[in-house]
Amino acid sequence: MNLLNVVQHTSADYLGLIEDHLEGRRIRFRYFRPFTEQGTVPGPGDECDGLVLLGGGPWGSAGGRDVPTLQKEIVVTRAMLDMGKPVIGIGLGAQILAIAAGGSSESMPLEFAVGYATRVVDDAMAGFLPERFPHVTYMRDRPALPAHAQVLAVDEQERPAVFQVGVNALGFCGHPGFKTAMAEDLIMEFEEAPEDPAPRLQQLQLLVPEIEDALVPIMTGIIKVTGLMQIRHRIPISLR
User: Fold this and answer.
1) Has residue 216 been placed in a domain?
2) CA angle at 172 for the pair 168 and 173, rounded to the nearest 5°
3) Sign of the torsion formed by the C-alpha atoms of 84, 228, 216 and 173
4) 151-204: pLDDT as tens digits
5) How far is CA 233 from CA 49, 81, 88, 143, 227, in A?
6) Is 239 part of any domain?
7) Total domain count for the chain?
8) Contact call for residues 39 and 85 (beta carbons, < 8 A)
9) H or E segment at 150?
10) pTM of the predicted protein model
């Protein structure tokens, strides 16, 4: 069974609906919670087959309200890319992926948006990225992509929604497995919250069936790009 290290930046923002898809494919995952008293960020040498960087709610990366572990996460993400291991960045995680890959991030206010993204590359994610799919963001700042990154889908404002770095790293500005309860918990967890979120929460609730349906091909595409179903031969820890 392959193992993913998953960096969580807030208690409310986690893998969400993605958890069931990973478990169904027998891909293990373990959360790292650096925001807790004894929490840490995984090190570049920690045993794993891939890295997932999750969203951060009102935490960003462009200098206004940076997540406290930003620099450590950039270092471990860059190390993963250098080792050729897959990286999946979601929300704030997509910003960190862009920075680690040689790009940067742009300062933007906290945004809670519910809408759709549109594929701009026909064979994106091995052809499994839907032509149009739900796009839910709860994020401060935005990734500024390195020149070698490929935009796979754009949001309703023609901004990058999904992008790929190299052969096996993917960035999602929206969370493809987002749950309504996650938005509610993010609003309650922090003093800073989007203005009048009720209409978007209602939109999100109506969109849940479409999110669930779209996640099926999206997860297939993620697995194809990252190769997480491939058998990997690890060196036993005792021999290192």
Assistant:
1) yes
2) 150
3) negative
4) 999 999 999 999 999 999 999 999 999 999 999 999 999 999 999 999 999 999
5) 10, 19, 21, 34, 14
6) no
7) 1
8) no
9) strand 150-154
10) 0.95
